[in-house]
Specification:
Elements: E1 2-6, H1 9-23, E2 30-35, E3 40-45, H2 53-56, E4 68-74, H3 79-82, H4 84-92, E5 103-109, E6 112-118
Antiparallel strand pairs: 1-3, 2-3, 2-5, 4-6, 5-6
């Protein structure tokens, strides 16, 4: 399930807050997905049995598989969030990105995020 916003930090924060208020945080897997071709960002949560996305006003989708480069960052928010873009930029120096798939942020814990860059040609 997800909330779609523009690639704008001012929209992302409120969307994350809304999603967490709608579904709670305990036992949930959260993801951010940036689609470079459309400049869209999806604030995502994994669907669980019993969820009713339509009733919550959320869209449904699937994050694509394939090969990704991964970097794990750790630290306390909000400083942790400020390291996301520079870390993706560093990953881009190591491989060509597949811009048909999103770059993914997997929020493992409040202080740990896996950043996944889709690799072109994989």
């Amino acid at each position: 399930m997800f909330i779609l916003v523009r690639d704008d930090v001012a929209e992302m924060g409120p969307a994350w807050q809304r999603l967490e208020e709608l579904v709670g945080t305990r036992g949930r897997r959260f993801f951010g997905a940036f689609y470079p071709s459309s400049k869209e960002y999806r604030v995502c949560v994994q669907l669980k049995e019993g969820d009713e996305p339509e009733a919550l006003g959320l869209d449904l989708g699937t994050l694509p598989g394939g090969c990704y480069l991964r970097a794990r960052i750790r630290g306390e928010p909000p400083g942790l969030y400020e390291r996301i873009a520079p870390t993706f930029q560093a990953l881009l120096k190591g491989a060509a990105s597949d811009e048909t798939r999103p770059s993914i942020e997997h929020y493992r814990r409040h202080d740990e995020i896996d950043l996944l860059l889709p690799i072109a040609g994989q």
